[in-house]
Write a structure and sequence with these properties.
Elements (H helix, E strand, L loop, with lengths): L1 E9 L4 H14 L3 E8 L7 E9 L11 E6 L2 H7 L3 E9 L14 E4 L2 H7 L6 H12 L5 H11 L8 H14 L1 E2 L1
Parallel strand pairs: 1-4, 4-5, 5-6
Antiparallel strand pairs: 1-3, 2-3, 6-7
Helix pairs in contact: 1-4, 1-5, 3-4, 4-6, 5-6
Length: 180
Amino acid sequence: MKHEIIISGFGGQGVLSLGKILAYAGLMEGKEVTWMPAYGPEQRGGTANVTVIVSDEQISSPILSKYDTAIVLNQPSLKKFEPRVKVGGDLILDNFSILETPTRTDITSYNVPAMATAAQLKMMKCFNMFILGGFLKAHPIVSVESVLKALRKSLPERHWHTIPMNEEAIFKGMELLTKI
């Protein structure tokens, strides 16, 4: 099993953290992983993306031109990465900040209404975990238990009190995933 993922959105949406948690979870399960972030100088508000590969075998290169799954959280990311999903691959998005719908018919497109749900439940800091839950429902490449351990690894100890809320968001995200 090898799964190649691009996660892209605005800075501040937790794109890099989502990828980091996914990568840590893979490491904890003894898998080969890469985590390669890319972001502009804006830090917050600019576009950020991260490539994550999780594999049972050695990974030859972290640089990809096509992806098994693209997780896109804004319109510019959809425009840039929808064409780069492999035929038969998946596109996962939150339609809150995406005005145009996906156009390809040779991939499966999913929606996770993370922003609306996070606002409704007053869990905005967990936005990215709703998305991660949706991804894990479509592709259980790592276990939720490993993701929860990875949260402890990636979050500073002063934020560990948010882990139960993040766990709730992951499970809710699994419920929210729907095909477009």
